[in-house]
TrEMBL record:
GO terms for biological process: lignin catabolic process. Binds 4 Cu cations per monomer. Its main location: secreted. Residues 41-145, 160-283, 414-556 form the Plastocyanin-like domain. This is Laccase. It holds the Pfam family Cu-oxidase_2. InterPro entries: Cu-oxidase-like_N, Cu-oxidase_2nd, Cu-oxidase_C, Cu-oxidase_fam, Cu_oxidase_CS, Cu_oxidase_Cu_BS, Cupredoxin, CuRO_1_LCC. Transmembrane segments: none annotated. Belongs to the multicopper oxidase family. Keywords: Apoplast, Copper, Lignin degradation, Metal-binding, Oxidoreductase, Repeat, Secreted, Signal. It comes from Panicum miliaceum (Proso millet). Lignin degradation and detoxification of lignin-derived products. Residues 1-22 form the signal peptide.
C-alpha cells in the first residue's frame, strides 16, 4: 500500500518439465469500489479496481485457454480488454465498450473466454469503458508452451513486472464527465506510479552477477515514459509480446499501451540504485500545466548490500532525458527490429488495400450535449482522415455486424485518404492558410468503419498533422499485430513501388501499438484474417474520448472456422 515499504523479490524462473498440452487458466475478477490510500494527500479515496492497483496478474502458457469471470459490483458500466490478444475466433471477448459488446451493467457479470495460441511475452488487461482503466488494469504474461523449449534469449535468473501508471487524487470518472461536458481535457496526473506505488516506495531485490527479465508495461492513461535504472543497462528482447533482435540501451521509451521485455544484468557494485520514470512530452508546442514533470522512483537493492550498522547509502539516481527529448525517443522506437524465427509470421509482400490516414487534433464547435462548454470558443476534437469517431449508443458494432443490421448504427464509408491533401506538418502554413478552416471543423462525430475482405493485406500510412499541434500518438490496433515498415518525420512522401525502397520488408518490428512520431509518420502492414469489428485508436485516453479512432470491419472467410461465430449466451445486452 502507498506509504508502506514493500520488498519485491524478483521471482526466480524455474525450469519446467511438463507435458506440452494446452490447459485452461481461470480467474474471477470482482470489479468493485475500494477505499484506497491517497498518494498526494492524507486519507483515503474511493476507487474502482479489481483487488487493488494493479489488479491480478494472469499467467498462462502459449496455447492455453484463458477464462475470466468478470463480476461488476461497481456503480459504473464496465468492460475488459485483453490488450494485444489476437482473439482468433473469439471476437466477442475483445472488450471495447459498444464496439464488440455492450457494457457489463452494475450488478451483472460476463465470462471472457479466449485462447493465447501463437503468442508469447508480456501483454496486459484493462477496462475499456471510460477512464476506468486508470485503476482497472493488470499484467497478462504468456510463457513459451510447456515442454516446447525456452525463450530465444539467455535464460534469466529471475523476472519482475514493472507496471507504470498515473494516479489522480480524485474520482477519475467524475473528472472524465466534467471534461466531456466542458470540452476541456482532464487535469494532468497528480503522480506517476510503479506497480501502483508512489515515489520511492516500490523495491526490487536482486542478487549480484544475475540477470533479470523486466516486463515493462505502460498502463498510463495519457503519458509516455522514459525508464532507467542507475548504473545498469538493458537488452531489449521483446516488444508488445513479439520477440526482437537484442537491442542494447540504457533507457527504455514506452508509450501508453505498449510493453517492453528487457534483460537487466545485476552487475553493478552491490548497493541500492534508483529505477526511475519520467514523462516524455512529445507535443509541439507544449502547453504549460498540461503535464506532470515529476520523476518517480523505485529502489533496486542488492541482497546482502546493507551496511553492518543497518544504514544504507542513498541510492544513486539515473540521469533522465529531458521531458521533450524526441531524439532519444525516436532512437529507441526506430532501433528495434524483429528476431526472425522459423514458423513466425513474415511480412506479406502483396498489398490489397492501401490507406493514407491523418491522425491528429483539430477544432470544432460545442456539441449540444456539452452543457458546460464555452460556446464562444472552439473546442479541440480528434480525428482520423477528418472523421471524429463516436461509438453507437443502442447496440454494439459487432452485434449490428452479426445481425446484418448496420443501418442507424454505423456506415461503411471511412475514407482511405483525407479530404484535402496539404502540408500536414507545417504549422506556420496551416495557421495562416485556408487548409485549417477546411479541416479543423469536423462537425458532428461519426461512426464510420472501413470494410475489409477476409485475408486482405492492408498497408496504412499514419500521418500526424499540425492543425492544433504536432504530437506522438500511440495508435493501437485490436485483434492483430502489424509490421512497422518505416517511420519518419515530416510528411510521408512515398507512394506505389517507389516507396517500397524505403520499407523494411525483412525484419521489421512487430507491434500492436505504434507511437507515430511527433510531426511525422509511420507505415504499418497487417493481414486481416479474423472476422469481426476491430478497433483502431489512439491509446492516449483524452484523445480517444474526443474521437481519435476508427474501426475495421473484417468480412467472413470461405470456411466455417473463418466466419463470425455467434455471440456467447451470456453476452451483455444494451
Amino acid at each position: 500500500m502507498p506509504g508502506s515499504c514493500l520488498i519485491l523479490v524478483l521471482a526466480a524462473v524455474s525450469s519446467v518439465a511438463a507435458v506440452a498440452h494446452a490447459a485452461t487458466v481461470e480467474h474471477t475478477f470482482n470489479v468493485a469500489t475500494l477505499s484506497w490510500p491517497r498518494i498526494c494527500q492524507p486519507g483515503n479515496i474511493s476507487i474502482t479496481a479489481v483487488d487493488g492497483v494493479p489488479g491480478p496478474m494472469i499467467e498462462a502458457y502459449e496455447g492455453d485457454t484463458v477464462v475470466v469471470h468478470v463480476m461488476n459490483d461497481s456503480p459504473y458500466d464496465v468492460t475488459t480488454h485483453w490488450h494485444g490478444v489476437f482473439q482468433r475466433g473469439t471476437p466477442w471477448a475483445d472488450g471495447p465498450s459498444m464496439v464488440t459488446q455492450c457494457p457489463i451493467r452494475p450488478g451483472s457479470r460476463y465470462t471472457y473466454r479466449f485462447s493465447v495460441a501463437g503468442q508469447e511475452g508480456t501483454l496486459w488487461w484493462h477496462a475499456h469503458s471510460s477512464f476506468l482503466r486508470a485503476t482497472v488494469h493488470g499484467a497478462l504474461i504468456i510463457r513459451p508452451r510447456l515442454g516446447a523449449g525456452a525463450y530465444p534469449f539467455p535464460k534469466p535468473d529471475g523476472e519482475a513486472v514493472v507496471l507504470l501508471g498515473e494516479w489522480w487524487d480524485a474520482d477519475i470518472v467524475l473528472l472524465e464527465r466534467q471534461a466531456s461536458l466542458s470540452g476541456t481535457p482532464i487535469p494532468s496526473a497528480d503522480a506517476y506510479t510503479i506497480n501502483g506505488k508512489p515515489n520511492r516506495t516500490e523495491k526490487f531485490s536482486v542478487r549480484g552477477n544475475s540477470t533479470y527479465l523486466l516486463r515493462v508495461i505502460n498502463a498510463a492513461l495519457n503519458t509516455a515514459f522514459f525508464f532507467k535504472v542507475a548504473g545498469h543497462t538493458f537488452t531489449v528482447v521483446a516488444a508488445d509480446a513479439s520477440y526482437t533482435a537484442p537491442y542494447e540501451t540504457d533507457v527504455i521509451v514506452i508509450a501508453p499501451g505498449q510493453t517492453v521485455d528487457a534483460l537487466m544484468a545485476a552487475d553493478a557494485t552491490p548497493g541500492c540504485y534508483y529505477a526511475a520514470i519520467s514523462s516524455y512530452q512529445s507535443a509541439i508546442p507544449l502547453r504549460p500545466g498540461s503535464y506532470n514533470g515529476d520523476v518517480t522512483t523505485a529502489v533496486v537493492e542488492y541482497v546482502g548490500a546493507a551496511a553492518p550498522d543497518g544504514q544504507q547509502a542513498a541510492p544513486a539516481l539515473p540521469d533522465m532525458p529531458e521531458l521533450t527529448d524526441t531524439t532519444t525517443a525516436n532512437r529507441f522506437y526506430t532501433g528495434l527490429t524483429a528476431l526472425v524465427l522459423p514458423g513466425r509470421p513474415t511480412v506479406p509482400l502483396a498489398v490489397d488495400t492501401r490507406m493514407f490516414v491523418t491522425v491528429g487534433l483539430g477544432f470544432s464547435s460545442c456539441q449540444p450535449e456539452q452543457t458546460s462548454c464555452n460556446r464562444s470558443a472552439p473546442v479541440v476534437v480528434a480525428s482520423m482522415n477528418n472523421e471524429s469517431f463516436t461509438r453507437p449508443t443502442t447496440t454494439s458494432l459487432l452485434d449490428a455486424r452479426y445481425g446484418n443490421a448496420p443501418d442507424g448504427v454505423y456506415t461503411r464509408d471511412f475514407p482511405d485518404r483525407p479530404p484535402v491533401a496539404f502540408d500536414y506538418t507545417n504549422a506556420t502554413e496551416l495557421v495562416a492558410g485556408s487548409v485549417a478552416a477546411a479541416l479543423s471543423s469536423t462537425g458532428r462525430p461519426t461512426t464510420k468503419v472501413r470494410a475489409l475482405g477476409y485475408n486482405a493485406t492492408v498497408e496504412v500510412v499514419l500521418q500526424n498533422t499540425a492543425l492544433v499541434g504536432r504530437e506522438s500518438h500511440p495508435m493501437h490496433l485490436h485483434g492483430f499485430n502489424f509490421f512497422v515498415l518505416a517511420q519518419g518525420f515530416g510528411n510521408y512522401g512515398g507512394g506505389g513501388d517507389a516507396a517500397s525502397e524505403r520499407l523494411n520488408l525483412v525484419n521489421p518490428q512487430e507491434r500492436n501499438t505504434i507511437a507515430v512520431p511527433t510531426g511525422g509518420w509511420a507505415v504499418i502492414r497487417f493481414v486481416a484474417d479474423d472476422p469481426g469489428m476491430w478497433f483502431m485508436h489512439c491509446h492516449i485516453d483524452t484523445h480517444l474520448s474526443i474521437g481519435l479512432a476508427m474501426v475495421f470491419e473484417v468480412g467472413d472467410g470461405p470456411t466455417p472456422d473463418t466466419k463470425l461465430p455467434p455471440p456467447p449466451p451470456d453476452l451483455p445486452r444494451c
